[in-house]
Each structure stands twice: as C-alpha cells, then as structure tokens.
Design goal:
single chain, alpha+beta, ten-stranded antiparallel beta sheet, eight-stranded parallel beta sheet, 15 helices, about 20% helix, globular
Length: about 700
C-alpha cells in the first residue's frame, strides 16, 4: 500500500538566522494600521452575476449567485450561524478557518500551524475593509506568534479570487512563515454524503469520496508540477505521477465549486484531507510555499521530533503573489467533467490556444545510444554504445511506414554527444560521431519532410555534468537554499535511494535556460531541423536561489517564453508528460498520464488531463510495454481519446535495463512490427480514428 513519505519537521541552522529573521516594523505596516483603524463591520460588493459579502459575525466571506440564490462560503454552510448547542459542540474549530499559517520557530526548532479561527478570530484580531470597488481586504493578526497576514477577496465575473502577497506578511524575530493555506474548507463536502466527492489533479486526475475511515485519516500533499529538483532528497518517493494542472474542487448533490490556481501554482502544494471523523468533512485546498528550503543532515546533539535525521534550511521569503480563482458550479449535471471544460475554456481565453490535430495514432521514440565502459589495452574508458545509428533510424522509419501509412510520429532521443545519458547541455549541440553526422541527419530529415512524416529530435536544456558550449558546471549551475550548487544523483532502481555509483549532474541556472534555447535554435537552423522535442523542459521544475525570482520554483513564464520563441520561428514542438504551461504550446505530447499517483485515499481515476487538452493537442500514452498490463493501457488510452507510445532501438543492449537516467523499455524493429499487428487485431486504429482530436 502506498504511504506518504513524511520529512521530519526540521530545525534552522544558526548561520542562516541572520538571513531569515523577520521584522515587526516593515514599511507596509502603515497599511495594516490604516485598515485596522478603519475596520468595518459587514461589507458587501456586487456585480451583475454575484454578490460578495463579509459577515463580521462569523468572520467569513460569502459568494451568492444573484439568479439561483445559492451561496458559497469560506466556512462550510452547515457549521455557521447555528443556534443548536449540540451541533456547535460537534463543530471542529479548524473548519471555521479562512486560512492556515505554518511557521517555523527559530528558537525552539519546531514547526507548527496556526488556524485563523482559533489563533486570530478567537482573540478578536481580524480586521476587514473594502479597499476597492471589487475587493475586501482582511487582516488576520496572529498576535501571539507576531505574524500578520493580509488576504484579499476580489469579486470577478467568474466568482471569487483570493490572493495573498508574501511581501505583505509581517513576522516577528522568532517565528518565520513557511506556508499559507488558502480557504481550506471552501471545497469541503460532508463525510458520508451521497453523490459527493472532491477532485484532485494527481496524474490524469482522481476522485475522493467523503467516507469516514476506521483507520487513520488520509492527508496527502502533492506539489504542483512535481517535486522541486533543487531539494536534495536522499530517498525518492513512490509517487508515480505528478500534478500537471493547478485545478481542484468539490461537488455535492448538484452544488460545487472549483479552484484554479492562477498565479503562484509552481510554489503550491495541493492538500487533500479525507476520512477524518473529527473534522466531519473531506476537503481539498491550496497550500502555498512562502519560503523555499533545502534538506540537510540534522546536526548532532539536537533532539529530533521524529526518527528521520534530516533538517530543513529555509530561504528568504518568495515574492510571487498567490491567486486562486474559485468558480461556483451548480445544476444536476455538474461533475469533474464540468471542471475540466471550465479550465479548458479558461486556457483558451487566457492564452489564445488554437486547436492542433494529428492523424498519427502512434508515437515512436527511436533511442540513439547510452554511455558505457570500454577497455583499451586494459584501461577503462567511457564511450557511447550505439543502440540506433541515424542510418538505422532511417531504415526503421521506412519499415514502419510501409505498414503504417503515415500513422506514426517519430522522436529521435539520445543522439547527442552523450546519448541518453546526461552530459553537456543539449547533448553538446552535436551528433555523436558513432551515431552519424549532421549531414546524415539533414538527409534523413529531408526525406521525412518529403514524405509528410513528422520527425522530432529531443534535447535536454536543464541537466548537465560537463562544462561546454559556454555553460560552466560551477558558475552557471543552479543554487540551493543553502547557497550551495545543486548536485543531483539518480535514484537507485531498486532501493530508490540516491545512487552515487553513477555520475552526478547539475541543474542549469534558471536565468540561462533561454540562452541555451537560443543556442539550440542556431544548431537546428544549421541542420535544417524544424521539429524539436523538449522533454525535461516540459515536465521538470526547480528552484534557483541565485535569483529571488526563481525561489520556490517560481517564474514558469520564462519557460513559456522559450516555447513562444520556438513557435515564433515556426518550429513544431514535442513535449513529454507536459505541465499545462508547456502543453498549451505543444504540437504533440507523449507519456500522458492515464492514472493517478495511486494513493490509498483515491477512490477512482479520471481522465481530467485528457478532457482539458483533447482536440487542442494530440496526446499519447506512456510507453506500451512498460506496464504490467498492456491491454489496460490500450483501454485507458482509447477511453480518454489519446494514442499510444512505443520505443524502438536497432541493436538491443541489456545495459539499458540498469540505466538510471530513464526507465527504458524498448523493442527491436521486429517486435515493434509484431506489436503493430496486435493493435490491428484488436481494432485499435479503428477506435482511434473515431475518437482522435
């Protein structure tokens, strides 16, 4: 059974204290004083669709639909304004909270969480004021902790936007804010209520039904866009998929609400709390990381709160403003599909996404080579072991085209200087001589173009372990929260621990990624390639503490600018397991998740990701042959309207099975042709033609 890997609540190293201490008298405290001194009682803001009002009696925000009369609140409706004392006693104070604030005590070396209901409201330390035509600003003053948070509630035509600006958080000298959770119960559904669930975007998506469990409740926190690669985790979690889309919500008996994390998604965790009898609710919410951190070995002589001997070293505060847009849902037909359609419309409207279609039913990744050890006169030397040369790639394409008739999109992977292994940035912007030459690559590309075949080539613009092409492994590598250069190791396939027997690698400084992409375009122009694959850029993300703008994985807009620059120059783009900010600019996406991360709390997987991008971007599954049940993968692909991916190599080599860089499952050309016949036998291509695009 899946278990949540919990890192121990950590202590602060003394030599970082000067950088992390807060200040009670910041310039913006005058704004707080102005709101406090003119704080008002009940407040009302209105537009043509909704009415938003601040109820000072229970310190909560309500959103009311003017037509239907239905209302949504930051406090579950059946816990507020009740006069039944027997019911009041059953209400968990946490459910009355508009925010949770997690802080780190720099003296006691402990981490704790404050609830607005018990640590601010209870002491009369909540102040509200209308600060613009559509916004109510509320101060939550956690005076005992010397922490003050300003939350802005803004009425929009879509619903309610809740915002927190880290620059407007006030701290004392002993306690620093690490996380802030926004409206933790606005999406809550009653435990054991029928026709109810919460939606979490894990992998393809999953639903959690509000059941009270006899064993301990399930609290699951997953990072949006996957784990921060800048954090030195010595043990890799067993999570099989990541959150690709910053959307969540809850539905109960024809009424629901969905949340879109509009800004700060990369700094966010989506938390679900289910099966909790004391809360009486199953809920889901966004937990924003205000400070980044690094994991270090815990110093000797300090008493730990758990068996894990690791500690967190926190960075200075992030500066990214966090916005969550809450969209009310109502009607007998609402479901997670409604949420997917709403988010799809949101993306189309915001980014001007245009539909991209494709006839290819299969995505085939052709594997170039891997680094191996050769012995020359008894002396070991690292050298590339060819799996498929460019000439052999041409023959593979010819053979597959003879039976597929333009039903395949191809991706050359591992044809750079170090093959599939991490080496120089973008494979050194070269073709390894053992695999062929630029001239041969140009000839293959020209032949494919003449036959209307889409042939892509993959490049890694993030990971490297050798200085070259104007990038140094020291001065141009990303920095951790400890201000040390980030050094990464691949996890062991068996133990999941960091495997130091293989070469480590660095992460390119975030500010240098655009430069790396510009160099790549020059190489592509020289080799006449107009189809580029950027798998790591499309699905990996990390903090870089060499520049404040990249704290807490922020600034995905700069990655978007890379995609835009390629599109501006008329390149086609191929992505792998793409996060939404990369997916919307892609022409193809492979390794699309067809399941969730499979935690015990999840009741059913749903194809949310596929519904969002269906008809906008052609999609393909994870590698057919890499799962225990191939038919299951085909069925999940067909039911969600996506194609199938496969990998092929000309000369199979068993060394690839132990390669730490990627989980590689591949077949020779004969096996691929055999698999093609299997798909024809089960009428896969007929099904695909009926559901494609």
């Amino acid at each position: 059974m899946k278990k949540i890997y919990r890192v121990s609540i950590a202590l602060m190293l003394s030599f970082f204290m000067f950088a992390l201490s807060g200040c009670t008298e910041k310039a913006y405290l005058s704004q707080y004083k102005a709101i406090k001194s003119s704080s008002q009682g009940d407040l009302t803001v209105s537009n043509s669709e909704y009415l938003m009002y601040w109820d000072s009696s229970n310190n909560s925000i309500y959103l009311k639909d003017k037509i239907s009369g239905l209302a949504w609140s930051t406090i579950p409706e059946d816990t507020s304004n009740t006069q039944d004392i027997s019911i009041i006693r059953k209400v968990n104070p946490k459910t009355q909270s508009a925010i949770f604030v997690t802080y780190y005590d720099t003296e006691k070396y402990i981490q704790d969480t404050l609830s607005s209901s018990t640590d601010a409201v209870k002491h009369g330390k909540v102040f509200a004021k209308q600060t613009s035509d559509d916004t109510i600003s509320v101060i939550y003053d956690f005076s005992e902790a010397e922490i003050t948070i300003v939350v802005e509630y803004t009425l929009t035509s879509k619903g309610l936007r809740i915002s927190i600006d880290p620059n407007r958080i006030s701290e004392g000298k002993k306690k620093i804010v690490t996380n802030v959770s926004i409206a933790p119960f606005i999406c809550a559904v009653n435990n054991d209520s029928k026709n109810s669930y919460i939606f979490i975007p894990s992998g393809s998506g999953a639903l959690i039904q509000p059941k009270i469990k006899t064993n301990s409740p399930s609290v699951i926190s997953e990072e949006v866009y996957g784990e921060d690669l800048a954090v030195n985790r010595k043990f890799k979690t067993t999570t099989t998929t990541d959150i690709k889309i910053p959307v969540y919500g809850g539905i109960s008996n024809g009424k629901g609400i969905m949340a879109i994390i509009e800004n700060g998604a990369s700094s966010c965790n989506i938390v679900s709390n289910s099966g909790n009898e004391s809360l009486n609710y199953t809920t889901i919410y966004a937990d924003f990381q205000v400070r980044g951190f690094e994991l270090v070995d815990q110093p000797n002589g300090v008493q730990a709160s758990s068996k894990q001997r690791v500690a967190k070293v926190y960075s200075n505060p992030c500066s990214t403003k966090c916005n969550v847009l809450f969209i009310p849902l109502q009607g007998t037909g609402i479901s997670y599909v409604t949420m997917a359609q709403e988010y799809r419309s949101y993306l189309i409207s915001k980014y001007g996404v245009k539909a991209k279609t494709a006839d290819e039913a299969l995505s085939v990744r052709i594997l170039g080579g891997i680094m191996s050890t050769e012995f020359r006169f008894g002396i070991p030397k690292s050298a590339l072991k060819p799996l498929t040369t460019i000439d052999q790639a041409g023959k593979i394409i010819d053979e597959l085209e003879s039976i597929s008739k333009n039903r395949i999109v191809y991706n050359l992977d591992g044809f750079g200087e170090s093959g599939l292994d991490v080496g120089k940035i973008a494979g050194g912007y070269k073709i390894n001589g053992r695999l062929g030459s630029i001239k041969k690559l140009m000839a293959l590309n020209s032949e494919c173009k003449s036959k209307n075949i889409n042939l892509f080539m993959n490049f890694d613009l993030m990971r490297y372990n050798k200085s070259a092409s104007g990038f140094s492994t020291f001065s141009d590598s990303a920095v951790a929260a400890t201000q040390k250069r980030i050094t990464k190791y691949f996890p062991s396939i068996i133990s999941k621990n960091a495997d130091t027997s293989y070469d480590s690698y660095k992460l390119l400084k975030r500010s240098e990624i655009l430069k790396a992409s510009d160099k790549l375009m020059k190489f592509l122009d020289k080799s006449s390639i107009k189809c580029v694959s950027l798998d790591t850029l499309s699905n990996k993300l990390y903090s870089d503490y060499s520049d404040e703008k990249y704290y807490c994985k922020s600034a995905t807009d700069e990655i978007v600018s890379v995609y835009k620059s390629f599109l501006k120059e008329k390149y086609k783009l191929f992505s792998t397991s793409a996060n939404d900010y990369a997916a919307i600019y892609s022409d193809y996406i492979d390794n699309v998740p067809v399941s969730s991360s499979n935690y015990d709390a999840f009741d059913v997987d749903v194809p949310f990701y596929q519904i969002v991008f269906s008809g906008l971007v052609p999609m393909y599954s994870s590698n057919w042959g890499s799962t225990g049940n191939d038919i299951d993968l085909v069925l999940r692909s067909v039911e969600s309207g996506i194609g199938i991916s496969m990998s092929v190599m000309a000369e199979y080599n068993t060394e690839i099975l132990s390669s730490p860089q990627k989980s590689m499952y591949s077949c020779g050309i004969d096996n691929i042709k055999s698999r093609f016949k299997e798909l024809e036998k089960i009428e896969y291509f007929d099904y695909y033609d009926s559901i494609k695009n």
